[in-house]
Amino acid sequence: MEASYAVTWQEGDGSVHSGKLELRPGALVLEGANGSGPRTRLVPYEDLRSVQVVRSRDERLYGLPTLRLGTRNAEPLKVAGLAQPGIITELAENLTSMLDDEQRGGRLVVLLPLKEGAREQAKALLANGPPFDPVAVGLERHHVFLTDHEAVFVFEAASIEEVERLGSEPGLWSGAARWQELVAGPPRLAEDAYSWVRPSSTDEVFYGPEPGPGDSEGGDLYSP
Predict the structure, then answer these.
(1) pLDDT tens-digit profile of 174-197?
(2) How far apart are alpha carbons 81 and 7 in whole angstroms?
(3) pTM
(4) What is the number of structural domains in the chain?
(5) Nearest Cα residue to 120 out of 92, 86, 148, 100
(6) Which domain holds residue 112?
């Protein structure tokens, strides 16, 4: 999807810029200027964490319908539409769709076959936690499931690249040596054949009053 919108935007409590927002492959790009000169801000969709239409008039930019974007490791962005009616609603819908896609993130599932009777020993090893810091290696979630015949390791991160980087983590391979006496064969990678993620719109997208014709205070054109 590629689209361009005339907007005013602000990062954190910084200066307000007027220009455009473009939805490009892989990222949204904000380009604008003010008395301090031009400014460009690129936000990869994988860094997008929340999409919210602000409710309070005091939070809006110049009182215009305003979208607040939460991003990873950066201050939130406020974006107000110019000239185009319904721009904020359209942007919220488009970005929420991308947010849902990105929140699927990267997932790696490893199946490790176990020798007969090794389940309890495997459970004892897992009780000590992973041989690496999940936060330090960029994981969002990490699970291990046990059956009588295999251990299922699930690694999830914001992107598949972060999951793949786990393979270079020294602690992973040193910890794997503890399993040598328990495994019945080489590990196998599971294929992600089907996934479902609950849409995030009910939790992360909030629609406040939008201005109606001749109504500078805003009217409820869209139900909350």
Answers:
(1) 667 788 899 999 888 888 776 655
(2) 5
(3) 0.48
(4) 2
(5) 148
(6) 106-185
